[in-house]
Amino acid sequence: MWSQVLAELAEETDYDNFKSEVARHQGKAGCAYEHCLHEVWSVMYKLQK
Q: What is residue 27's predicted lDDT score, i.e. its pLDDT?
């Protein structure tokens, strides 16, 4: 059941970039949150190298 729910939620996703989508929905109020997302992405990207 859980995998079916996740698959259906994935089908509903209509954006390419989560960080950009957060910025679009939260605007200036979510600026700090968006910045944190970029920081996490940066750390994870460096760990892949």
A: 81
